Amino acid sequence: MSLALLVPGGTGQLGRELVARAPAGAEVRAPGSAELDVTNAGAVIEAVKTLAAAAAAASVPPVVINAAAYTAVDAAESDRTKAFALNADGPRLLAAACSAYDVPLVHVSTDYVFAGDADRPYRTGDPIAPRSVYGATKAAGEEAVLGSGARAWVVRTAWVYGAYGNNFVKTMARLAGERETLSVVDDQRGSPTWTGDLAVGLLELAARAVGSDPPAERILHATGAGTTTWFELAGAVFSELGLDPKRVRPCKSDEFPRRAPRPAYSVLSDEEWREAGLKPLRPWREALTAAFAEHGDALRGN
Fold it and tell me: 8 is in which domain, residue-wise?
């Protein structure tokens, strides 16, 4: 399906995958923060206005997928102003502009909006209770988007990794070449999500958003299928590198205190995603193998 796509945060970890996997014939603008500051109201309005005009000229539907975010979880604890600006004010401005120009918006959020103390996968309607500044900023962004009047969808995801930027998988691959053994926490459970698969899912949602049968549910969850721990994920990374996963040792979270609390349980249910007719993301372990097959050098830091 041809469309005109604006991807704020387009030079980041997820944004670059969205650009790479956009449908053939799509007109894509993917500005990084230097080109489009989502906290600048005038710049945001101009960007969405330009998108709407270009879409009308090409007789294709416009859509915004917001991949811009402040993701430094620990730094956010002492950098509240910037974190709220990027994660709450930015989405509010984008949503307001999308509402004004009748452009659908897909906004990416996170498992950190939940407390992380559940014993079953979080459903989209479960109460949120963020325990960190980062989680609070993302929750505020969700509220702003959903209350804007725009045709908007919030997609929560978790444990994201990919070829671009910094992430857990790349860190494990780097440390594998620096240390004989690694200690990794084994008491936090979630669902690793490859940006390649997430981008495909978000683009499918974007196409549905501008079609005749958009999903009725405005909050959706999209993560790699299945669950694991950081320790088990690290072992899987070692296996993909052809190394002995026994070099990874389990430990507890309290052995590695962090400024921002981490959710002990980050598993998100994709039931609403599937009920909307969207294709589930593949199992996390299968996706990790695919990610290394496609982006092995980048994941290894080569």
Answer: 4-167+192-225+266-282
Judged against a pLDDT cut of 80, whether residue 165 lies above it is answered with yes
Handedness of CA 68, 266, 116, 75 (dihedral sign): negative
- The secondary structure element, H or E, covering residue 153 is strand 152-157
Measured between alpha carbons, how far is 194 from 21 in angstroms, rounded to an integer? 13
Residue 89 lies in a domain: yes
Backbone φ, ψ for residue 255 (5° rounding): -80, -15
pLDDT of 1 higher than 80: no
The enclosing domain of 84 has a CATH number of 3.40.50.720
| pLDDT tens-digit series, residues 97-150 | 999 999 999 999 999 999 999 999 999 999 999 999 999 999 999 999 999 999
- Catalytic-labelled residue, pool 70, 112, 122, 134: 134
Active site residue 70: no
- This prediction has a pTM of 0.96
Nearest residue to 206 via CA among 28, 83, 11: 28
Q: Is the sign of the CA dihedral 121, 227, 84, 21 positive or negative?
A: negative
**Is 17 among the domain residues?**
yes
The SS3 of residue 205 is helix
